[in-house]
What does this fold into?
Amino acid sequence: MKKNLFFYVFAVLCTMPFFTSCSDDDEDTPVVIPVSEEIAGNYKGNLDVTVDGQKLASVAQRISVAESGDNAINLSIADFSFLGIEVGDIDLNNCALTPNGERYDFTGVTTVESTILTADVNATGYFNNGGLHIDLDIDATLGGQKQAVTVTYDGTRLTGNESSAAQITSFTFDTSVAANAAVLSQPVIDEANATITFKAEEDGDVSALVPTIEVSAGATVTPASGSAVSFASGSATFTVVAEDGTSKTYTVSCSMGSLIQYDFETWATPEGAMYPEVVNPEGWATCNDAVALIKNMGPILGGITYTGEYPVRQTTDAHSGSTAAMLESVDTQGGSILGQTIPKVTAGSMFLGTFNAFAAMTDPMATTEFGILYDKKPVKVSGYYKYTPGAEFYNAAGELQADQKDACAISAVLYEVESEDETLDGSTIYTSDKIVAMASFSSGETVAEYTPFELNLEYVKDYDASKTYKFAVIFSASADGAAYNVAVGSTLYIDDVTIENEAVTE
It folds into this structure.
């Protein structure tokens, strides 16, 4: 018995140095963060962007995180943009992870360069229980001007089992719904080209159609199914976001009868407008977007304090109905924003197409993206106008030209495109070799009462129904407004515009 006890005690004593040594080694062993198991992967969330203290709309964003050696990551934000400016990919490489309670903190720095800007990016963030939080401090230089951009992101780690399908699987109109009474044929989906087309009555109301939309499992669509959507401009866009953050945008086009009419009775803030005070006639783009930029960003970035009226306004002085469109060339004072010249006078203008105000930071002529997709053969644009030229005419340098007189301008241009994204702008709309048909009217005479105008399009190329076209109708209170040669107070009234189309057989 004594012998057994001795050997037992001896064995215990012999093992004690072994365990003590192991404990000492553990204290020197670095912490190993389970990057591949708990952190690496894709995250789905929203970016909240603030530019010089002004918060912009949240944007859905997928962020990728990959392991980079021991306890470090590479983080990538693809296709980042702000204020309509494409910054590009933001890649933060070899960011060391530091344990902080239940979370892992990281920092990172990088520089992003594009053709128009340079941006120094400082990032701080953390991972916590499947979530990712990032704060980006971006010091951007655009056109020689500094711009402070801050970005906050909160996202959730995807499991990897989420679907990437982002498709509209069904798009229909319930014609028993009163709002859809004008629909003549159910939409046809062209998945390859991400387009959907349908037909409506030539004189039908398509300003608030209510589609029923089905999408891929786990995906969402904006505007949502059951929402009222205007097709008064001929088309609307719908964006599908998949369960894993993948997105796809569809263009839904409405083909109507032989006549398209605009009575300018309905005005609203355009979808996606940065400034809610901007109000345009439904289906039309205006220079109001550019003046909104001057009003909001001018005091911050250029010392411009224009507080006057927007150039394009709804007026009760109508040819028929309750309201019409009034286009007035206004004195926006002149100056510069981010190194780009702001004219002394901004011409009142309205057109079918899209106004890209932020293109002015690189190419002022590119602000006007003329034309909407058009599947008809236009032959005539008519309507009613009245006009008063302004008294003080200024050139692009802001110099008073006492011997010059302003004139209004009305034009229509049909042109061919290779893709739906292609457009003509202020520098090409009247000179491009893609033009198929065109008509224009200009007058500097005072017209005190509503007077009819008529533009008969002259075709310089044969119309081919198998090709893709865009059509622009353009109204301006100052004929040379694109070159900033404008008279203060030139005022053009427009009402009851009709586009007449020739029947087309494919």
About this structure: Residues 301 and 337 are 6 Å apart (CA to CA). The chain has a mean pLDDT of 87. The longest helix spans residues 2-28.
